């Protein structure tokens, strides 16, 4: 079983301060951390930690951040041989300010914008060797659509995590195997006219809506709503919970698990990730997830 992520690779530059600055104000920060991130890279790390063979497809700049991020992926067990290092373009950066009650985030896509059709054509042969591909919305939209088209044409399963939220064309919605928005993203994708239950019933065994501390929901082909309640977690940091859920769900689907089993494992993995600091730092191994599932059965 071989899995792939086509997506973003970012360095998160996180400053902690008493509060976020007001307009035009200069504030003294407390600490500065460089933390590997990007939804694509985070999800690939989640999959590798769960023991999957995962290839990361994406781009970084020819700078120090790019080198560090590729090394970080390798150390996590992700295959990086097809990541393109783009000359003269900065690696994707997220500038994050964390105040006591608030945060601000500015993302500079940088090399993530170079994940274009031409790049995808250059890695097509390797991509087609994968059983499943996981995508997010931090690379150009036309690339996401192109990957969905060429992979589904060949019968390769595609999981699309539409984060950050932006509309998805109906034909892309029809083609993807699974679509995994959180509640906020689902509202932007589908509007607020339908209830969550109605929406799930419209897209049985396709739409998976994550609901934070409430858990995750989907619908069976029979029309029965499937609600997987969240495990009670001692939450330290929810950053990366969605990425863990997506990575874990994709790995389980690739193994041929049914939607309910896949969601149960992914839901446990995601809740465990909230109990440690950092997105990638908190992601559990398969052993940790299985142990926890046995404990609360
Ligand atoms: N407080 C929590 N307690 C237990 N599990 C949680 C909690 N928050 C999130 N989770 C788990 O993480 C999954 C994803 O959370 P959520 O729906 O908030 O996605 P998200 O907004 O993409 O997450 P994030 O952006 O914080 O990574 C949930 O479906 C659940 O399994």
TrEMBL record:
Highest taxon above the source species: Bacteria
Metabolic or biological pathway, per its Swiss-Prot or TrEMBL entry: Carbohydrate metabolism; D-ribose degradation; D-ribose 5-phosphate from beta-D-ribopyranose: step 2/2
InterPro entries to which the protein is assigned, alphabetical: Carboh/pur_kinase_PfkB_CS, PfkB_dom, Ribo/fructo_kinase, Ribokinase, Ribokinase-like
Co-factor(s): Mg(2+)
Compartments, as annotated in UniProt: Cytoplasm
Record flagged with keyword ATP-binding: yes
PROSITE patterns, A to Z: PFKB_KINASES_1, PFKB_KINASES_2
Quaternary assembly: Homodimer.
Purpose: Catalyzes the phosphorylation of ribose at O-5 in a reaction requiring ATP and magnesium. The resulting D-ribose-5-phosphate can then be used either for sythesis of nucleotides, histidine, and tryptophan, or as a component of the pentose phosphate pathway.
Family affiliation: Belongs to the carbohydrate kinase pfkB family.
Protein's name according to its UniProt entry: Ribokinase
Organism (species): Lactonifactor longoviformis DSM 17459
Gene (name only): rbsK
């Amino acid at each position: 079983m071989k899995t792939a992520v086509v997506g973003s690779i970012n360095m998160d530059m996180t400053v902690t301060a008493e509060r976020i600055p007001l307009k035009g104000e200069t504030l003294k920060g407390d600490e500065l951390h460089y933390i590997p991130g990007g939804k694509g890279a985070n999800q690939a790390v989640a999959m590798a930690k769960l023991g999957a063979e995962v290839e990361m497809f994406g781009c970084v700049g020819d700078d120090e951040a790019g080198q560090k991020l590729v090394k970080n992926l390798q150390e996590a067990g992700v295959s990086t041989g097809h990541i393109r290092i783009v000359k003269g373009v900065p690696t994707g950066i997220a500038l994050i300010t964390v105040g006591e009650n608030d945060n601000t985030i500015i993302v500079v896509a940088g090399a993530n914008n170079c994940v274009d059709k031409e790049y995808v054509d250059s890695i097509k042969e390797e991509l087609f060797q994968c059983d499943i591909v996981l995508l997010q919305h931090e690379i150009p939209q036309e690339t996401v659509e192109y990957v969905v088209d060429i992979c589904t044409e060949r019968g390769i399963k595609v999981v699309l995590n539409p984060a950050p939220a932006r509309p998805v064309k109906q034909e892309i919605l029809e083609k993807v195997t699974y679509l995994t928005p959180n509640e906020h993203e689902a509202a932007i994708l589908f509007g607020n006219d339908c209830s969550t239950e109605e929406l799930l019933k419209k897209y049985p065994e396709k739409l998976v809506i994550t609901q934070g501390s409430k858990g995750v929901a989907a619908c069976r082909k029979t029309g029965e709503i499937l609600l997987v309640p969240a495990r009670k977690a001692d939450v330290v940091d929810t950053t990366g919970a969605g990425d863990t859920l997506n990575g874990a769900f994709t790995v389980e689907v690739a193994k041929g698990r049914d939607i309910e089993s896949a969601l149960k494992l992914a839901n446990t993995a995601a809740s465990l990730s909230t109990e440690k600091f950092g997105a990638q730092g908190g992601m559990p191994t398969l052993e940790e997830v299985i142990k926890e599932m046995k404990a609360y059965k």
